[in-house]
Amino acid sequence: MKLTGAEILIECLKREGVKTIFALPGGVVLKIFDMLHQQKDIEVVLTRHEQGAGHMAEGYAKATGKAGVCLVTSGPGMTNVITALADAYMDSVPLVCFSGQVPTSLIGNDAFQEADNIGLSRPCTKYNFLVKDVKDLAVTIKEAFYIATTGRPGPVLVDIPKDVSMDKAEFVYPSSISIRSYNPVYEGNKWQIKQAAEAMTKAKKPVLYVGGGVIFSGASQELIELAELTHMPVDMTLMGLGAFPGEHPQSMGMLGMHGTYWANMVMHYSDLVVAIGARFDDRVTGKVSEFCPHAKVIHIDIDPTSIRKNVNVDIPIVGDCKLVLRELIQILRATVNGDQRELRKPWWDQIREWQQANPLAYQQEADGPIKPQHVISRLYDLTKDRDPIVSTDVGQHQMWAAQYFKLAKPNRWLTSGGLGTMGFGFPAAMGAQAAFPGRLVLCIAGDGSIQMNMQEMATAVVHKLPVKIIILNNRFHGMVRQWQDLFYEGRYASSDLETTPDFVKLAEAYGAVGLRASKPSEIDDVIKEALAVNKPVIVDVPTYRYENVYPMIPAGGCNHEMILEDPPALKSKQSGTGQVAPKDSDTILTA
Amino acid sequence: MEHIISVTVENKFGSLSRIAGLFSGRGFNIESLSVAPTLDPSMSQMTIVTSGDERIIEQIVKQLNKLIDVIKVVDLNESDFVSRETALIKVHTKSEDRAEALRIADIFRANVIDSTPATYTIEVTGDPRKIEAIINLLQPLGIKELTRTGRVAVARELIRSTDVQAKKVVRE
Ligand SMILES: Cc1cc2nc3c(=O)[nH]c(=O)nc-3n(C[C@H](O)[C@H](O)[C@H](O)COP(=O)(O)OP(=O)(O)OC[C@H]3O[C@@H](n4cnc5c(N)ncnc54)[C@H](O)[C@@H]3O)c2cc1C
Ligand SMILES: Cc1ncc(C[n+]2csc(CCOP(=O)(O)OP(=O)(O)O)c2C)c(N)n1
Ligand SMILES: [Mg+2]
After folding, report:
1. Which residues pair with residue B5 across a beta bridge?
2. Is A484 tagged catalytic?
3. Of the ligands numbered here, which is closest to the C-alpha atom of A400?
4. How confident is the model over A164-179, as pLDDT tens digits?
5. Is the pLDDT confidence value at A581 over 80?
6. Strands (E), A267-400
7. Cis bond leading into A551, ω under 30°?
8. Taking a C-beta distance cutoff of 8 angstroms, is the pair A125, A156 a contact?
9. Residue A236: which H helix or E strand, with range?
10. Is A66 a catalytic residue?
């Protein structure tokens, strides 16, 4: 039977198992929207901005492990979604984005709302396609999903000119696909794996350094087994949180710039680093020349370009985490027994010492200003039994969330790591909620970041996505303010937001629920109240404005040289004796 | 160090810009790049002359391999190779210089492929040093226009062809 391009697109989506797409219409995609309107299998979530659509698709993908799908129009629709594509590209999120394009006959003519979608998206997609003939559409879509979800996942763009969506062709959906120039390697090299196993048995001070790859590969069970078998500490990257249970005695929490003291000490003093699906980002390595100076490095990654990009690797293993870990476990099970525990006892003694020396800490006075860390601790305690999905925006609140919200399982942590996109959190949470309507989805937001995609509250209300947003409101671009306090002599160039909207009223204006906790004693009740509502909720929490995130490794610093608390000069300044005395209008400090 | 990388890509709309974009986006050097279809018209062959230390070259090869349109990448410096470049040089020739121009062309086994009363267009093929040399000799006569193809290269066939080290096998 002959179908129009628009119908073919929908048939393909159904065959890919797509239940929800995030979309915003426009002239050249009207045919597609018209056909979407006349079917029931795929829900269309109409967003208020294309960036929102892109991040929702990302949240959906991260929570489900499947490709997220968004649909935007040509020109400004495309340029608006670019940030989300770039975000997905940096964080390896499987996404298929359909964009409308002017009719093929007009391409290149500076036609109305024309943009070079292929050119614009090339550097921020894993691959992109311009479909010039409706006959190619079905195969192209199959390829797009295949490329987005295999190997190292990533966003793929399919650009569909208006006439292609209207022309007809025989619909045949290929049941399988192979691309001669694209064959990701899943099986690790056996000899290398054996070498790795040997090094792991011998090491006295090893560490597992695990990242987002473990989550993409669904290798958490294998990771737990490997860690327990070998009795190694587990450091997680920001993107790897949830890959290993945060409360597990072998969990060191997050490493890197704002990682725990002990996670970074373990890296620095280790004699063997086993990197699993992690890419040695500069937020983790610090000064590369002094990174893990005593260690041999094993690196398991599906993408050869990740290996030896930033640091030297002794045993590279190109392959999928799950398959490689299985093989490793098999070999190790035959070779190690209880002796690992004995061998590594001094190492663990040292680690426990580090943990006791500098635990994550903050001081919450009962009638003092609310400390942001305290809010997250309370949120964690009050929700952990409900196995929530947690998204964050970007800034200090993101780091505190990473430190204090201990994820038990993978695919529950939605954060923008590589691009660090403010405005990611709320739409990402909505995407996850759309995938799992019955689950608890929390968004830990900053007052700056939330304003970058606030408009999606309208979408959340219409589509009944009861995301619970907790705004840690310091009326600052707090992360920027922190750097200014530490490295720019406290000159707050454009970091003081001065005023934020009344988020409670704003939520209500959208038809959502707004709540506020103004005193430490109110936090629990307000959180409980928010959890009881089956609607989107904003919980506005004015916090102490000058709290800083520690530990901190200054950019380009060494991993064992962390700043652990405010330097003395800063302390006196913040206590009001310095030049930046709190203003009278500063209700937060006096709250 | 200079490396010559031979890349087989899908002969598709956009393949070239993906490769050019990779080099510019990641700040890799690109000294010259030449492209043409292969015997199989569905593929193109590129020869890229680039430079960088060992780690950069390793990244270049890996990043090229990672591009979906790339079928095969060979760093020719891993083995022995031959390379050639062609230049078309249009020289001004006053009547007293015409014999000199022909003599120079002859020394370099270059051909005159176009001639007007005031110019010769000379075609010369060779390694970069040879091209530089003829350019230097012709310069005093006055070079009006010069175009160079950039280098193309192939690995030398060894006696035992299995010794040829390709970084990556053709993925079928
Ligand atoms: C304000 C801010 C502060 C930050 N501070 C920190 C910090 O303190 N600590 C920190 O860690 N990060 C921090 N980040 C995040 C940091 O920028 C990087 O995003 C992060 O470190 C990268 O995590 P990753 O190494 O797990 O890589 P990811 O980006 O998750 O990449 C995954 C890796 O796994 C590979 N992979 C994918 N699938 C598979 C598979 N199936 N099998 C095997 N391998 C696979 C990929 O090829 C890739 O190499 C911060 C970000 C922001 C915005
Ligand atoms: C789109 C975007 N613009 C700018 C930045 C740079 N930046 C990083 S953190 C930050 C401040 C974030 O403020 P807020 O959301 O209030 O979080 P806080 O640090 O106060 O917790 C800024 C401006 C960014 N990451 N993303
Ligand atoms: Mg803030």
Report:
1. B48, B75
2. no
3. 2
4. 999 999 999 999 999 9
5. no
6. 272-276, 296-301, 315-318, 389-392
7. yes
8. yes
9. strand A234-236
10. no
| pTM metric for this prediction | 0.95
Q: How far is A186 from chain B (nearest CA, A)?
A: 14
Are A305 and B71 an interchain contact pair (Cβ–Cβ within 8 Å)? no
From the list B24, B46, B23, B44, the residue with the least C-alpha distance to B34 is: B46
Q: Are the C-beta atoms of residues B43 and B8 closer than 8 Å to each other?
A: yes
One-letter identity of residue A470: I
A394 lines ligand 2 (CB under 6 A): yes
Give dist(CA A84, CA A22) in Å, integer. Answer: 12
Residue pLDDT, tens place only, A419-454: 999 999 999 999 999 999 999 999 999 999 999 999
Question: Is A50 assigned a catalytic role?
Answer: yes
Here the tokens at position A194 are 């054996």
Distance in angstroms (rounded) separating the CA atoms of residues B7 and B66:
12
d(Cα B135, Cα A203) in Å, to the nearest integer?
61
Pair of tokens at residue B83: 């390379």
A150 CB near ligand 1 (under 6 Å): no
Q: Which residues surround ligand 3, an ion (CB under 5 A)?
A: A 446-448, 474, 476, 478
Least Cα distance to A388 among A376, A371, A399 occurs for A376
Q: Which residues pair with B120 in a beta bridge?
A: B91, B115
- Distance (angstroms) between ligand 3 centre and the Cα of A538 equals 15
ipTM of the predicted structure? Answer: 0.91
CA of residue A273 to ligand 1 center, whole Å: 16
Residue A347, SS3? helix
Amino acid making up residue A273: V
Gap from B148 CA to chain A (nearest CA, Å): 28
Three-state DSSP class for A566?
Answer: coil
A239: CB partners within 8 A, 6+ apart: A91, A211, A212, A215, A278, A415, A417, A418
Torsion sign, CA atoms B138, B143, B147, B150 = positive
Please say if A113 is a catalytic residue.
Answer: yes
Query: Between B9, B21, B171, which is nearest A122 by CB?
Result: B21
Are A122 and B10 inside 8 Å of each other by CB? no
Contacts 24+ apart (CB under 8 A), B161-168: B163/B79, B164/B79, B165/B78, B165/B79, B166/B72, B166/B74, B167/B61, B167/B65, B167/B73, B167/B74, B167/B75, B167/B78, B168/B65, B168/B72, B168/B73, B168/B74
On the 0-12 / 13-18 / 19+ scale of CB atoms within 10 A, A198 is middle
- Would you say the CB of residue A274 lies under 6 angstroms from ligand 2? no
- Minimal Cβ distance to B10: which of A123, A181, A305: A181
The separation between CA A532 and the C-alpha centre of its own chain, rounded to angstroms, equals 27
- Inter-chain CB proximity B62 and A304 less than 8 Å: yes
Tell me the β-bridge partners of A23. A46, A71
Residue A180 to residue B71, Cβ atoms within 8 A: yes
Please say if the pLDDT value at position A228 is more than 90. yes
CA distance B91 to A478: 66
Chain B residues lying within 8 Å of A178, measured CB to CB: none
Half-sphere exposure of B110 (CA within 13 A, CB side): 31
